Amino acid sequence: MTKERASPIRTTVLPALILAVALALPFLVPQYYVQFASKVLILGVLAMALNLVVGQGGLVSLCHAAFFGLAGYVLALLSPKYDPASLLLTLPAAVIAAGAVALVIGALALRTRGVYFIMVTLAFGEMLFYLFHDADFAGGSDGAFINAKPELVIAGVRLLDLDKPLVFYFVVLAVTIGAVGLLTMLVRSPFGHALAAARDNERRARALGFPIFRIRLIAFTLSGALAGLAGYFAAIQFGFVAPQMLGWHQSAVALVMVLIGGLSTVTGPLIGALVLLGLEEVLKATFEQWKLIEGIIVIAIVLLLPNGVRQLWPMAVGEADPKPARDDKVAPSPARAPETGHA
């Protein structure tokens, strides 16, 4: 299948313009909107992490909120009661913990298929939810407070104070840009092509020698670690963690963001987060029954724009909207190890 070449405006000018707006935003709007933008970026990273499994891997997971909330709890548990925690200590610990739990859950859940995979991930997510809901060490159903936000201190010099909204916004923006770069590199790499090949035609990819189970497990683990990264900064922003962060409802919200933004692009879920959260802000201030109206609008978007709201750009400028690129031929790696696990 021949891939359509995207216009330079779409690939270069538009991203540069969006980045310029993001950098200038804190100096143009009140602090409330800076905090709102930080929230959009954090949940956008969560949605992009989920999309690595859903969009690129073809696997619908309902436990990514568990990784999201787990990282927040790691920060809360490692933070001193009144003093700021070390960013260099707590950030790697939170991401590694989320990735390790994703590795264990993925090793078990990926042995199932279809609706069974969805139910297994949902079950694991609910297990973690009730673990923290009923555990006294984590504050039980009341959750836990983070009284002082982490700091980056090297040789006695404070380099980052995340208690300042402006500093926090730019750190989250840098994390988001890093996540976009990492996911773009993964999707375009041989690993990403192998993951997409397993999504499109698992039997064919297996016949060509791709270690399907291993590829999906790596993707699931990386996705869980990125979800944990988002959860860490969410806990910093709100200064509080609660079991609801791990619930299936949060996973469902992230999945809606993926569907609104579009499955076939890396940044689509980030756009979906902006659309969904922006829609909530507008509807809350306008209608009493805003949840009902929000649901109707989301359903309309999914039905009318199956490739997400990103379709609106090519429709507006008269470009053909490229379909997800799926090669007709998948070449096996010249030195591919045999698969060791069940698919």
UniProtKB/TrEMBL annotation:
One protein family per Pfam: BPD_transp_2
UniProt keyword Cytoplasm present: no
Source superkingdom: Bacteria
Keywords attached to this entry: Cell membrane, Membrane, Transmembrane, Transmembrane helix
Location, primary (coarse class): membrane
Cellular location(s): Cell membrane
Membrane topology, as annotated: Multi-pass membrane protein
Keyword Membrane tagged: yes
Compositional bias of kind Basic and acidic residues: 320-330
GO CC aspect terms: plasma membrane
Transmembrane segments: 12-30, 36-54, 59-79, 85-108, 115-132, 166-187, 208-233, 253-279, 291-309
Chain positions covered by the region annotation Disordered: 320-343
Molecular function as annotated in GO: branched-chain amino acid transmembrane transporter activity
Record's protein name: Branched-chain amino acid ABC transporter permease
Organism: Rhodopseudomonas palustris
